[in-house]
Amino acid sequence: MDFFRLKDNNTTISTEIRAGFTTFLTMMYIVPVNAMIMSQAGMPLDALLTATALITIIATILNGLWSNTPVAMSVGMGINAYFTFGLVLGMKMPWQSALGVVFISGILFLLLSLTPFRVWIIESLPKDLRRAISAGIGTFIAFIGFKEMGIVVDNPATLVGLGDFGNSSVLLGIFGLFMVFILYSLRVKGAFILAITLTSIVGWGVGTADYPKEFISMPSSIAPIFLELDIMSALSLSLLPVIITFLITDMFDSLGTLAGVGFRAGLFEKESKEIERTLEADATASVLGSLLGVSTTTAFIESASGVEEGGRTGLTALVTGLFFILTLFLLPLFKAIPPNAIYPILVMVGILMFSELANIDFNDRATATATFFIVLLMPLTYSITTGLAFGFISYLVLKVVEGKFKDINMGVVLLALISLLVFVY
User: Fold this and answer.
1) 10 Å Cβ neighbour count for 260?
2) Residues 16 and 118 in one domain
3) How far is 11 from 20, CA to CA, in rounded Å?
4) I need a labelling partner for 292 at 20 to 30 A (CA). Which of 118, 366, 403, 407 fits?
5) Which residues are CB-neighbours of 414 under 8 A, at least 6 positions away?
6) What confidence tens digit (pLDDT) does each residue in 104-133 have?
7) What are phi and psi for residue 213, nearest 5 degrees?
8) pTM flag (> 0.85)
9) Is 167 left (phi over 0), alpha (psi -120 to 50) or beta?
10) With contact defined as beta carbons under 8 Å apart, do 368 and 394 qualify?
11) Burial of residue 159, with CB atoms counted within 10 A of its CB: 0-12 exposed, 13-18 middle, 19 or more buried
């Protein structure tokens, strides 16, 4: 085990195994949740369950071996919702073309992770705008969660309205919301998967979903989505803003996770080889994920639970990835989970991402305006791209009007110009 430098990192094999299992418990929810979300794009649920489990196993083990960090990876929450509800359902894009977008953005991320340009992009975007992006995506996926649960419905008079609280499925969703809120507030390990389990049991009991007749089966084939991406259709100038959106979201999501997980544990004291290799593993996994048939892969903040248990090396990630092999054989159980046991998790994740607003300096007018547009327009227009476009453009315009040219760099100008393509095309 000297490969993982356990002694240098002041840890042991038993500690790393315990940490890896803890991370697995806290993020196991991603398999049914991601499959449920992406299946709304017309993709087969069975294949998505297997593909999600596979990319989680591959990405997490790859990162553990390549970067030697305790960071687990899987399909990113938020960006998977954008894939389904923004691109496929919103822009009427075939899911094959959307996978092409994921592939291209992953290739760009991989290339950037090998060059100084990555650092330039990271340093160009103000921290407050990065936080606004996180908060905006949070509102977007929370809105999707409310809509899919039937809590928020369309209303011809007011555009949106409150759903039917007499509907048993809606009530199950509300029960699920309270479950995840309570368990997370009590800091219960594995709160998400436990909330899904309890809500599913209630749903089966009251008849809103069928109880699973079996719990274990062989993994389903991924043939219906494997290598089905359409790269050529994604090579369009009109899709450049979408590709950039996936690229920026993945990059800053990963960096934010590494900051939250690594820096607090003293793993990344400075811009290190471990950070670079983690980003390289992330980018590689996104490319592989698009080939398997899933959306962008990213580092998971749930890795912090393993770090809290003492995980300090890639052995933690390796153990997490190996435990995810078990999920390949839980297809019947995952398929039996009621949708309204899944969607409350989106709302909770949205709340966690929305909390980034607390760290933004609203005394800066340009930042406050850009944040407003990003956070409000992402859910209202059902488009992360549109929210970012309004945010970047308004930030640049107000900085110019105020004469604060020192706050403007080429990165901000470039992102604003790319954002203009959203409205041109």
Assistant:
1) 15
2) yes
3) 13
4) 118
5) 124
6) 988 888 888 777 766 666 667 788 887 888
7) -80, -20
8) no
9) beta
10) no
11) exposed
